[in-house]
Amino acid sequence: MKNKLLSLALLIVLLGSILIGCDLSAKAGAAVPINLSKSLKTDVELQEIDELDEAHLEGLSKFAFDMFIKQRDGENIFISPYSISSALSMVYNGADGKTRNEIAELLGYDVIEGYTPDYSKEANSDMNYNVKYLIDALLNADPKVQINVANSIWMAEGIQFNDTIDEALLAPVREYYGADIFQVDFTLDETLEQVNKWVSHNTDKMIDPFIEQFQDKESLMLFIANAIYFNGKWTLPFEKSNTRQTPFYGREGTKEVDMMHMSGEQYRYLAMEGVRGVEIPYGNENLVMNVLIPEDPNNVLIGDLLAGKSSEELNQFLLELDKSSKIKLGTLALPKFEMEYGTVDVTKALKELGMEEAFTDNANFSLIGDNIFISTISHKAKIEVEEWGTKAAAATGLDVNTTSMPLDPPINFIVDVPFVFTIRDKATGTILFIGEMNNIHE
Questions:
Q1: Strand pairing partners for 34?
Q2: What is the structure's pLDDT at 330?
Q3: Which 8-state DSSP code applies to residue 244?
Q4: Which residue segments constitute the domains of the chain, with CATH numbers given?
Protein backbone atom coordinates (compact mmCIF):
# COMPACT_ATOMS: atom_id res chain seq x y z
CA MET A 1 0.00 0.00 0.00
CA LYS A 2 1.34 3.43 -0.93
CA ASN A 3 2.51 5.37 2.07
CA LYS A 4 0.33 8.32 2.95
CA LEU A 5 1.19 11.41 4.97
CA LEU A 6 -1.31 12.84 7.40
CA SER A 7 -0.17 16.26 8.59
CA LEU A 8 -1.99 17.96 11.41
CA ALA A 9 -1.02 21.42 12.62
CA LEU A 10 -2.72 23.41 15.31
CA LEU A 11 -1.74 27.00 15.72
CA ILE A 12 -2.35 28.53 19.09
CA VAL A 13 -1.87 32.26 19.12
CA LEU A 14 -2.34 34.85 21.82
CA LEU A 15 -2.53 38.27 20.25
CA GLY A 16 -4.36 41.54 20.29
CA SER A 17 -6.26 41.66 17.02
CA ILE A 18 -9.98 41.24 16.50
CA LEU A 19 -10.82 38.07 14.59
CA ILE A 20 -12.22 38.90 11.16
CA GLY A 21 -12.93 36.83 8.10
CA CYS A 22 -9.75 35.48 6.56
CA ASP A 23 -9.46 36.18 2.82
CA LEU A 24 -8.31 32.89 1.36
CA SER A 25 -8.82 33.87 -2.25
CA ALA A 26 -5.81 32.97 -4.35
CA LYS A 27 -4.12 34.94 -7.07
CA ALA A 28 -5.26 34.46 -10.66
CA GLY A 29 -4.72 30.91 -11.85
CA ALA A 30 -4.21 29.48 -8.36
CA ALA A 31 -6.37 26.86 -6.72
CA VAL A 32 -9.01 28.19 -4.35
CA PRO A 33 -9.85 26.10 -1.26
CA ILE A 34 -13.32 24.58 -1.35
CA ASN A 35 -15.15 25.05 1.94
CA LEU A 36 -16.80 21.75 2.82
CA SER A 37 -18.05 22.84 6.24
CA LYS A 38 -21.65 23.25 5.13
CA SER A 39 -21.78 20.09 3.04
CA LEU A 40 -20.85 17.45 5.61
CA LYS A 41 -23.58 14.85 5.83
CA THR A 42 -23.04 13.92 9.46
CA ASP A 43 -24.68 16.03 12.16
CA VAL A 44 -23.51 16.03 15.76
CA GLU A 45 -25.90 16.30 18.68
CA LEU A 46 -23.95 18.42 21.11
CA GLN A 47 -23.63 16.86 24.55
CA GLU A 48 -24.38 19.23 27.40
CA ILE A 49 -22.39 19.39 30.62
CA ASP A 50 -22.88 21.71 33.57
CA GLU A 51 -19.22 22.27 34.36
CA LEU A 52 -15.74 21.30 33.34
CA ASP A 53 -14.45 17.99 34.62
CA GLU A 54 -12.05 18.93 37.45
CA ALA A 55 -9.93 15.83 36.91
CA HIS A 56 -9.59 16.80 33.25
CA LEU A 57 -8.40 20.29 34.20
CA GLU A 58 -5.90 18.80 36.64
CA GLY A 59 -4.68 16.54 33.85
CA LEU A 60 -4.11 19.50 31.53
CA SER A 61 -2.18 21.36 34.24
CA LYS A 62 -0.05 18.29 34.86
CA PHE A 63 0.61 18.01 31.13
CA ALA A 64 1.66 21.68 30.99
CA PHE A 65 4.30 21.31 33.69
CA ASP A 66 5.45 17.91 32.45
CA MET A 67 6.00 19.30 28.94
CA PHE A 68 7.83 22.32 30.33
CA ILE A 69 10.19 20.23 32.45
CA LYS A 70 10.88 17.78 29.62
CA GLN A 71 11.51 20.52 27.06
CA ARG A 72 13.81 22.79 29.11
CA ASP A 73 17.54 22.59 28.43
CA GLY A 74 19.05 25.48 30.38
CA GLU A 75 18.32 28.01 27.63
CA ASN A 76 15.34 30.31 27.28
CA ILE A 77 12.13 28.40 26.67
CA PHE A 78 8.61 29.47 25.79
CA ILE A 79 5.86 27.04 24.82
CA SER A 80 2.09 26.84 24.75
CA PRO A 81 0.95 23.62 26.43
CA TYR A 82 -2.58 24.60 25.48
CA SER A 83 -1.53 24.63 21.83
CA ILE A 84 0.08 21.22 21.98
CA SER A 85 -2.81 19.67 23.90
CA SER A 86 -5.31 21.17 21.46
CA ALA A 87 -3.45 19.63 18.53
CA LEU A 88 -3.47 16.25 20.20
CA SER A 89 -7.17 16.63 21.08
CA MET A 90 -8.04 17.06 17.43
CA VAL A 91 -6.13 14.00 16.25
CA TYR A 92 -7.36 12.00 19.26
CA ASN A 93 -10.76 11.91 17.61
CA GLY A 94 -9.36 9.62 14.95
CA ALA A 95 -7.34 7.37 17.26
CA ASP A 96 -8.18 3.96 18.65
CA GLY A 97 -6.65 1.22 20.79
CA LYS A 98 -3.35 1.82 22.57
CA THR A 99 -2.70 4.98 20.55
CA ARG A 100 -5.95 6.45 21.87
CA ASN A 101 -5.22 5.36 25.44
CA GLU A 102 -1.74 6.90 25.53
CA ILE A 103 -3.02 10.27 24.32
CA ALA A 104 -5.92 10.07 26.79
CA GLU A 105 -3.59 9.33 29.72
CA LEU A 106 -1.23 12.12 28.65
CA LEU A 107 -3.97 14.77 28.56
CA GLY A 108 -6.16 13.44 31.37
CA TYR A 109 -9.02 12.33 29.13
CA ASP A 110 -9.00 8.89 30.73
CA VAL A 111 -10.46 10.37 33.93
CA ILE A 112 -13.41 12.06 32.21
CA GLU A 113 -16.68 10.37 33.12
CA GLY A 114 -17.72 7.99 30.36
CA TYR A 115 -14.21 7.34 29.01
CA THR A 116 -13.72 4.01 27.26
CA PRO A 117 -10.37 2.40 26.28
CA ASP A 118 -11.65 1.67 22.78
CA TYR A 119 -13.16 4.23 20.41
CA SER A 120 -16.64 5.29 21.41
CA LYS A 121 -18.62 8.09 19.82
CA GLU A 122 -20.26 8.83 23.17
CA ALA A 123 -16.96 8.88 25.07
CA ASN A 124 -15.40 11.18 22.48
CA SER A 125 -18.42 13.46 22.75
CA ASP A 126 -17.76 13.81 26.48
CA MET A 127 -14.13 14.72 25.78
CA ASN A 128 -14.98 17.10 22.95
CA TYR A 129 -17.58 18.92 24.98
CA ASN A 130 -15.06 19.45 27.77
CA VAL A 131 -12.79 20.99 25.13
CA LYS A 132 -15.64 23.14 23.79
CA TYR A 133 -16.64 24.17 27.31
CA LEU A 134 -13.05 25.22 27.98
CA ILE A 135 -12.90 27.22 24.74
CA ASP A 136 -16.13 29.00 25.69
CA ALA A 137 -14.79 29.64 29.20
CA LEU A 138 -11.64 31.22 27.79
CA LEU A 139 -13.58 33.35 25.29
CA ASN A 140 -15.69 34.72 28.15
CA ALA A 141 -13.02 34.79 30.84
CA ASP A 142 -12.65 38.57 30.99
CA PRO A 143 -14.38 41.28 28.93
CA LYS A 144 -11.25 43.41 29.26
CA VAL A 145 -8.95 40.72 27.86
CA GLN A 146 -9.40 39.61 24.29
CA ILE A 147 -9.22 35.92 23.43
CA ASN A 148 -10.44 34.49 20.14
CA VAL A 149 -10.29 30.91 18.90
CA ALA A 150 -10.39 29.59 15.31
CA ASN A 151 -9.92 26.14 13.78
CA SER A 152 -9.64 24.69 10.29
CA ILE A 153 -8.99 21.39 8.53
CA TRP A 154 -7.38 21.18 5.09
CA MET A 155 -8.13 17.92 3.26
CA ALA A 156 -6.37 16.60 0.18
CA GLU A 157 -8.67 16.21 -2.77
CA GLY A 158 -8.74 12.83 -4.47
CA ILE A 159 -7.65 10.91 -1.35
CA GLN A 160 -9.63 7.89 -0.17
CA PHE A 161 -10.13 8.32 3.56
CA ASN A 162 -11.78 5.67 5.69
CA ASP A 163 -15.57 5.92 5.76
CA THR A 164 -15.48 6.70 9.49
CA ILE A 165 -13.57 9.99 9.10
CA ASP A 166 -16.73 12.08 8.76
CA GLU A 167 -18.43 10.83 11.92
CA ALA A 168 -15.27 10.34 13.98
CA LEU A 169 -13.24 13.45 13.07
CA LEU A 170 -14.73 15.97 10.67
CA ALA A 171 -18.21 16.41 12.14
CA PRO A 172 -17.08 16.61 15.78
CA VAL A 173 -14.28 19.04 14.94
CA ARG A 174 -16.72 21.18 12.99
CA GLU A 175 -19.35 21.20 15.73
CA TYR A 176 -17.26 21.25 18.91
CA TYR A 177 -14.22 23.17 17.67
CA GLY A 178 -16.06 25.37 15.15
CA ALA A 179 -13.66 24.31 12.40
CA ASP A 180 -13.93 25.23 8.75
CA ILE A 181 -13.05 22.32 6.47
CA PHE A 182 -11.30 23.01 3.17
CA GLN A 183 -10.50 20.73 0.26
CA VAL A 184 -7.20 21.51 -1.46
CA ASP A 185 -4.49 20.16 -3.75
CA PHE A 186 -1.37 19.88 -1.60
CA THR A 187 0.87 19.37 -4.66
CA LEU A 188 0.31 22.99 -5.70
CA ASP A 189 2.62 25.65 -4.27
CA GLU A 190 -0.43 27.89 -3.92
CA THR A 191 -1.82 25.60 -1.23
CA LEU A 192 1.23 26.19 0.95
CA GLU A 193 0.74 29.90 0.37
CA GLN A 194 -2.92 29.61 1.36
CA VAL A 195 -2.12 27.80 4.58
CA ASN A 196 0.63 30.27 5.50
CA LYS A 197 -1.70 33.14 4.62
CA TRP A 198 -4.27 31.74 7.03
CA VAL A 199 -1.64 31.41 9.73
CA SER A 200 -0.21 34.86 9.11
CA HIS A 201 -3.64 36.46 9.20
CA ASN A 202 -4.53 34.70 12.41
CA THR A 203 -1.27 35.61 14.13
CA ASP A 204 -1.18 39.26 13.08
CA LYS A 205 1.91 38.32 11.02
CA MET A 206 3.87 37.28 14.10
CA ILE A 207 4.30 33.78 12.66
CA ASP A 208 4.96 34.18 8.95
CA PRO A 209 5.69 31.82 7.45
CA PHE A 210 5.05 28.91 9.76
CA ILE A 211 5.71 26.16 7.22
CA GLU A 212 8.53 26.39 4.69
CA GLN A 213 7.29 23.29 2.87
CA PHE A 214 5.07 20.29 3.32
CA GLN A 215 7.06 17.21 4.31
CA ASP A 216 5.63 15.08 1.50
CA LYS A 217 3.04 16.97 -0.49
CA GLU A 218 2.46 14.06 -2.86
CA SER A 219 1.00 11.94 -0.06
CA LEU A 220 -0.21 14.65 2.31
CA MET A 221 -3.74 13.90 3.51
CA LEU A 222 -4.74 16.45 6.14
CA PHE A 223 -3.55 19.70 7.64
CA ILE A 224 -5.37 20.79 10.79
CA ALA A 225 -5.04 24.29 12.23
CA ASN A 226 -6.18 25.86 15.49
CA ALA A 227 -5.62 29.47 16.51
CA ILE A 228 -6.18 31.29 19.79
CA TYR A 229 -5.60 35.03 20.27
CA PHE A 230 -4.81 36.91 23.44
CA ASN A 231 -4.28 40.60 24.16
CA GLY A 232 -3.85 41.35 27.83
CA LYS A 233 -3.38 44.81 29.28
CA TRP A 234 -2.08 44.89 32.82
CA THR A 235 -4.69 45.78 35.42
CA LEU A 236 -2.08 48.22 36.70
CA PRO A 237 0.09 49.30 33.75
CA PHE A 238 3.72 50.13 34.36
CA GLU A 239 4.64 53.77 33.79
CA LYS A 240 7.16 54.11 30.96
CA SER A 241 8.87 56.87 32.91
CA ASN A 242 9.71 54.30 35.60
CA THR A 243 11.46 51.95 33.18
CA ARG A 244 15.21 52.17 33.50
CA GLN A 245 18.33 50.16 32.78
CA THR A 246 19.31 47.85 35.62
CA PRO A 247 21.36 44.63 35.80
CA PHE A 248 19.82 41.24 35.01
CA TYR A 249 21.92 38.44 36.45
CA GLY A 250 21.38 35.79 33.81
CA ARG A 251 22.67 32.24 33.56
CA GLU A 252 25.31 33.38 31.05
CA GLY A 253 26.28 36.55 32.88
CA THR A 254 25.12 40.03 33.87
CA LYS A 255 23.51 42.39 31.36
CA GLU A 256 21.87 45.81 31.57
CA VAL A 257 18.19 45.52 30.59
CA ASP A 258 15.09 47.72 30.53
CA MET A 259 13.45 47.03 33.88
CA MET A 260 9.84 48.11 34.49
CA HIS A 261 9.07 49.31 38.04
CA MET A 262 5.89 49.56 40.10
CA SER A 263 5.93 50.84 43.69
CA GLY A 264 3.45 50.64 46.55
CA GLU A 265 0.76 48.56 44.81
CA GLN A 266 -0.94 45.39 46.04
CA TYR A 267 -0.36 42.00 44.43
CA ARG A 268 -0.92 38.40 45.41
CA TYR A 269 2.37 37.04 46.71
CA LEU A 270 3.53 33.69 48.03
CA ALA A 271 6.81 32.30 49.37
CA MET A 272 6.84 28.55 49.91
CA GLU A 273 9.39 25.74 49.77
CA GLY A 274 12.17 27.85 48.30
CA VAL A 275 10.03 29.57 45.67
CA ARG A 276 8.72 33.14 45.59
CA GLY A 277 5.80 33.93 43.32
CA VAL A 278 3.83 37.01 42.35
CA GLU A 279 0.60 37.28 40.39
CA ILE A 280 0.42 40.16 37.89
CA PRO A 281 -3.17 40.41 36.64
CA TYR A 282 -4.66 41.49 33.34
CA GLY A 283 -7.98 43.29 32.92
CA ASN A 284 -10.46 42.26 35.61
CA GLU A 285 -7.88 39.89 37.12
CA ASN A 286 -9.35 36.69 35.69
CA LEU A 287 -6.26 36.10 33.55
CA VAL A 288 -2.86 36.51 35.12
CA MET A 289 0.86 36.21 34.65
CA ASN A 290 2.57 34.30 37.45
CA VAL A 291 6.27 35.03 37.87
CA LEU A 292 8.43 32.69 39.95
CA ILE A 293 11.94 33.27 41.29
CA PRO A 294 14.00 31.41 43.92
CA GLU A 295 14.05 32.58 47.53
CA ASP A 296 17.83 32.23 47.42
CA PRO A 297 18.96 33.17 43.88
CA ASN A 298 22.61 32.94 44.91
CA ASN A 299 22.44 29.18 45.35
CA VAL A 300 19.94 27.91 42.79
CA LEU A 301 18.36 28.87 39.48
CA ILE A 302 14.56 28.79 39.42
CA GLY A 303 14.34 26.36 36.53
CA ASP A 304 16.63 23.87 38.23
CA LEU A 305 14.66 24.24 41.46
CA LEU A 306 11.32 23.61 39.78
CA ALA A 307 12.68 20.67 37.82
CA GLY A 308 13.15 18.88 41.13
CA LYS A 309 9.46 19.19 41.99
CA SER A 310 6.54 17.17 40.69
CA SER A 311 3.94 18.66 38.36
CA GLU A 312 1.41 18.28 41.18
CA GLU A 313 3.62 20.34 43.52
CA LEU A 314 4.08 23.04 40.88
CA ASN A 315 0.37 23.27 40.17
CA GLN A 316 -0.38 23.36 43.90
CA PHE A 317 1.95 26.34 44.27
CA LEU A 318 -0.04 28.26 41.65
CA LEU A 319 -3.33 27.29 43.29
CA GLU A 320 -2.02 28.53 46.66
CA LEU A 321 -0.88 31.74 44.96
CA ASP A 322 -4.39 32.15 43.54
CA LYS A 323 -5.81 31.99 47.09
CA SER A 324 -3.16 34.13 48.78
CA SER A 325 -4.02 37.56 50.11
CA LYS A 326 -2.84 40.67 48.34
CA ILE A 327 -0.03 42.50 50.02
CA LYS A 328 1.51 45.88 49.36
CA LEU A 329 4.83 45.38 47.62
CA GLY A 330 7.55 47.91 48.16
CA THR A 331 8.73 47.51 44.57
CA LEU A 332 7.79 45.17 41.77
CA ALA A 333 10.43 45.13 39.05
CA LEU A 334 9.93 43.10 35.87
CA PRO A 335 12.10 43.24 32.76
CA LYS A 336 10.68 44.20 29.40
CA PHE A 337 11.44 41.34 27.11
CA GLU A 338 10.70 39.67 23.83
CA MET A 339 11.33 35.98 23.28
CA GLU A 340 10.93 33.78 20.23
CA TYR A 341 11.24 30.05 20.75
CA GLY A 342 11.48 27.45 18.04
CA THR A 343 10.68 26.01 15.72
CA VAL A 344 11.38 22.96 17.94
CA ASP A 345 10.32 19.32 17.76
CA VAL A 346 8.48 18.28 20.92
CA THR A 347 8.16 14.64 19.86
CA LYS A 348 10.93 13.45 22.18
CA ALA A 349 9.26 15.04 25.22
CA LEU A 350 5.91 13.47 24.38
CA LYS A 351 7.48 10.04 23.99
CA GLU A 352 9.17 10.39 27.38
CA LEU A 353 5.78 11.30 28.88
CA GLY A 354 4.29 8.03 27.66
CA MET A 355 2.82 8.86 24.26
CA GLU A 356 4.84 6.38 22.23
CA GLU A 357 2.74 4.25 19.89
CA ALA A 358 1.41 7.21 17.89
CA PHE A 359 4.95 7.73 16.55
CA THR A 360 5.46 4.10 15.45
CA ASP A 361 4.32 1.80 12.67
CA ASN A 362 1.81 0.35 15.14
CA ALA A 363 -0.06 3.65 15.50
CA ASN A 364 -3.82 3.29 15.26
CA PHE A 365 -5.56 6.23 13.58
CA SER A 366 -7.95 3.89 11.82
CA LEU A 367 -10.89 6.27 12.16
CA ILE A 368 -9.08 8.56 9.70
CA GLY A 369 -7.09 6.27 7.42
CA ASP A 370 -4.94 3.17 7.26
CA ASN A 371 -1.26 2.83 8.17
CA ILE A 372 -0.62 6.34 9.45
CA PHE A 373 1.52 7.58 12.33
CA ILE A 374 2.80 10.89 13.70
CA SER A 375 6.34 11.59 12.53
CA THR A 376 7.06 15.02 14.03
CA ILE A 377 5.36 17.67 16.14
CA SER A 378 6.81 21.12 15.59
CA HIS A 379 6.24 24.06 17.92
CA LYS A 380 7.06 27.74 17.71
CA ALA A 381 6.17 30.54 20.11
CA LYS A 382 6.79 34.23 20.66
CA ILE A 383 6.02 36.66 23.48
CA GLU A 384 6.40 40.41 24.03
CA VAL A 385 6.10 41.90 27.53
CA GLU A 386 5.91 45.69 27.82
CA GLU A 387 4.61 48.42 30.12
CA TRP A 388 1.05 48.17 28.76
CA GLY A 389 0.70 44.39 28.85
CA THR A 390 1.52 41.19 26.97
CA LYS A 391 1.25 39.90 23.43
CA ALA A 392 2.13 36.33 22.52
CA ALA A 393 1.80 33.78 19.76
CA ALA A 394 2.45 30.08 19.31
CA ALA A 395 2.05 27.45 16.62
CA THR A 396 2.08 23.66 16.74
CA GLY A 397 2.29 21.36 13.75
CA LEU A 398 1.81 17.59 13.66
CA ASP A 399 3.17 15.55 10.75
CA VAL A 400 1.76 12.05 10.61
CA ASN A 401 3.18 9.43 8.22
CA THR A 402 2.21 5.89 7.42
CA THR A 403 4.26 2.72 7.80
CA SER A 404 6.45 1.79 5.41
CA MET A 405 -0.22 38.86 54.49
CA PRO A 406 1.67 42.32 54.70
CA LEU A 407 5.13 42.39 56.18
CA ASP A 408 7.19 45.20 57.63
CA PRO A 409 9.34 46.31 55.90
CA PRO A 410 7.42 45.92 52.61
CA ILE A 411 8.37 42.98 50.42
CA ASN A 412 10.13 43.74 47.16
CA PHE A 413 9.83 41.43 44.16
CA ILE A 414 12.76 42.23 41.90
CA VAL A 415 12.97 39.99 38.86
CA ASP A 416 16.65 40.52 38.09
CA VAL A 417 17.53 36.82 38.00
CA PRO A 418 16.34 33.97 35.75
CA PHE A 419 12.61 33.42 36.21
CA VAL A 420 9.78 31.12 35.20
CA PHE A 421 6.46 32.59 34.14
CA THR A 422 3.02 31.40 33.10
CA ILE A 423 -0.05 33.00 31.54
CA ARG A 424 -3.11 31.36 33.10
CA ASP A 425 -6.87 31.50 33.25
CA LYS A 426 -7.61 31.48 36.98
CA ALA A 427 -11.15 30.11 36.77
CA THR A 428 -10.12 26.92 34.99
CA GLY A 429 -6.43 26.89 35.91
CA THR A 430 -5.59 26.51 32.22
CA ILE A 431 -1.95 27.32 31.46
CA LEU A 432 -1.97 28.99 28.06
CA PHE A 433 1.76 29.67 28.04
CA ILE A 434 4.76 28.78 30.19
CA GLY A 435 8.32 29.99 29.84
CA GLU A 436 11.72 30.27 31.45
CA MET A 437 13.90 33.34 30.93
CA ASN A 438 17.55 32.62 31.66
CA ASN A 439 19.22 35.30 29.54
CA ILE A 440 17.72 38.45 28.06
CA HIS A 441 18.93 39.13 24.53
CA GLU A 442 18.57 42.20 22.36
A1: 183
A2: 96
A3: E
A4: 5-232+339-402 (3.30.497.10), 234-335+406-437 (2.30.39.10)
